[in-house]
UniProtKB/TrEMBL annotation:
GO terms for biological process: monocarboxylic acid metabolic process; tricarboxylic acid cycle. InterPro entries: Citrate_synth-like_lrg_a-sub (IPR016142), Citrate_synth-like_sm_a-sub (IPR016143), Citrate_synthase (IPR002020), Citrate_synthase_AS (IPR019810), Citrate_synthase_bac-typ (IPR024176), Citrate_synthase_sf (IPR036969), Citrate_synthase_typ-I (IPR010953). CDD domains: EcCS_like. Pathway: Carbohydrate metabolism; tricarboxylic acid cycle; isocitrate from oxaloacetate: step 1/2. Keywords: Transferase, Tricarboxylic acid cycle. Pfam families: Citrate_synt (PF00285). Transmembrane segments: none annotated. It catalyses: oxaloacetate + acetyl-CoA + H2O = citrate + CoA + H(+). This is Citrate synthase. It comes from Nocardioides silvaticus.
Length: 429
């Protein structure tokens, strides 16, 4: 068996041998297929990159058929059970689990970079009283590039390291301040005595008490949620970070673009839609009618189905367990009962089984976030904080990848050609 593809161009009768590597062909190899020397070579048309690999990556592995998700080769279940978010962040960025010294240094560095310049605070205070926290996070992350102009020196690994530390450290500060802003509450400064997630909860919820002490079960559940969201290979926002990063801009600008992509309802907003759906169903008695509506094509069971996972999303299983831990502290969200019953019915129903529709990460995450008393606008902010190490790991990989070029897709031009400009006096006469 030869690892190549023989292509016959029926326009010319010519045959070409195109090498196959890692189950792909190089799109550029199609460029040799032409009807004449002065004609453009063959290209592929792939809106949304549904069947195009844009990079080689060793960060995250997904097998959607089997329901497998691994960061740097480690199954998500083991990481969620045994690791911390900062340990996972180190793993994603540096490719291996840290030694004790590496971990202590990493945690120390991140803890001591959580403060932002006071002008960032004034900048954020300038937003309108009802500004969406995700818009504030996107703008303030991008604005960090103006506070660290040296970040544009992306070729220097030490410089990249410090910007990565800063970004992971400051994201909770910016996210919490965006949350406090909409509530008209004073921004709370980071507390370096607390761990990453406890500190975030403190900046979100602290009032006049000397120190905000989060329930450890809540802090751990949020840490696990961050781990689950830390990377997901070439999704829309990661692709945005890579695409913008390919211009060799600084990482704050590239991650700002990723936050913009995550803001969109097709990417980060599905858990909010799950909550709306559960509220609309209202009680267990209404589930059969709702399911019938889904089967008739009038409804969509939000939080079910995934472009990649055609099996139980491994993150959904872990989140389901985290629900129990959170509700033990906060009391049960009444919508949970509806969600569980809905899941039970859907997993047995032929419509869903045949189409391989299983709960995805968003089916339960909204319920947990609501138990924390986060308004829905904060859900994507939480997602962004969790995804930051993944974006940065992918960005760092991009910088070191000799194959990468500035992202610049082709197009199929469908407009006019060679028109003659008519001066305004004639057009408007
Ligand atoms: C995630 C999603 C966009 C993936 O879409 P996709 O890979 O393009 O899958 P398709 O839309 O081709 O769906 C395949 C079939 O399953 C059905 N289907 C997919 N998701 C469904 C859902 N949530 N409820 C009911 N039917 C669904 C489709 O109608 C289609 O049925 P058909 O073959 O009879 O036409 C889709 O499953 C969805 O909209 N889910 C709900 C939103 C959600 O939870 N998004 C978060 C993802 S993390």
């Amino acid at each position: 068996m030869t690892d190549s593809l023989t292509v016959r161009d029926n326009r010319t009768g010519a045959e070409y041998d195109i090498p196959i590597t890692d189950g792909t062909i190089r799109a550029a190899d199609l460029g040799q297929i032409k009807t004449a020397d002065d004609q453009p070579g063959l290209a592929t048309y792939d809106p949304g990159f549904v069947n195009t690999a844009s990079c080689r990556s060793s960060v995250t592995y997904i097998d959607g058929e089997k329901g497998i998700l691994e960061y740097r080769g480690y199954p998500i279940e083991q990481l969620a059970e045994n690791s911390t978010f900062l340990e996972v962040a180190y793993l994603l960025i540096y490719g291996e689990l840290p030694s004790k010294e590496q971990y202590d240094k990493w945690v120390h560095e991140i803890t001591y970079h959580t403060y932002v310049h006071e002008n960032v605070k004034s900048f954020m205070q300038g937003f309108r009283y009802d500004a969406h926290p995700m818009g504030m996070l996107m703008a303030s992350t991008g604005a960090l590039s103006t506070f660290y102009p040296e970040a544009s020196n992306i070729a220097d690994p030490d410089n990249r390291h410090i910007q990565i530390v800063r970004m992971i450290a400051k994201m909770p500060t910016l996210g919490a301040w965006a949350f406090r802003h909409a509530q008209g509450k004073p921004y709370i400064y980071p507390d370096n005595e607390l761990n990453y997630t406890e500190n975030f909860l403190s900046m979100l919820f602290k009032m006049s008490e000397h120190r905000y002490e989060a329930d450890p079960r809540l802090a751990r559940a949020l840490d696990v949620l961050f781990i689950l969201h830390a990377d997901h290979e070439q999704n829309c926002s990661t692709n945005a970070v890579r695409s913008v990063g390919s211009s060799q801009v600084d990482p704050y600008s590239a991650v700002g673009a990723g936050i913009g992509a995550l803001f969109g309802p097709l990417h980060g907003g599905a858990n909010e839609a799950v909550l709306r759906m559960l509220r609309r169903i209202g009680s267990k008695d209404n589930i059969p009618d709702f399911i019938a509506g889904v089967k008739d094509g009038n409804e969509r069971l939000m939080g079910f189905g995934h472009r990649v996972y055609k099996n139980y999303d491994p993150r959904a299983k872990i989140i389901k367990k985290a629900c129990d831990d959170v509700f033990e502290v906060t009391g049960v969200n009444p919508l949970l009962e509806i969600a569980q019953e809905l899941e039970k019915i859907a997993l047995e129903d032929e419509y869903f089984v045949k189409r391989k529709l299983y709960p995805n990460v968003d089916f339960y995450s909204g319920l947990i976030y609501e138990a924390f008393q986060f308004p829905p606008e904060m859900f994507t902010v939480l997602f962004a904080i969790g995804r930051t190490p993944g974006w940065l790991a992918q960005w760092q990989e991009l910088i070191g990848d000799k194959d990468q070029k500035i992202a610049r897709p082709k197009q199929i031009y469908t407009g006019d050609r060679g028109l003659t400009f008519t001066p305004r006096e004639e057009r408007w006469a």
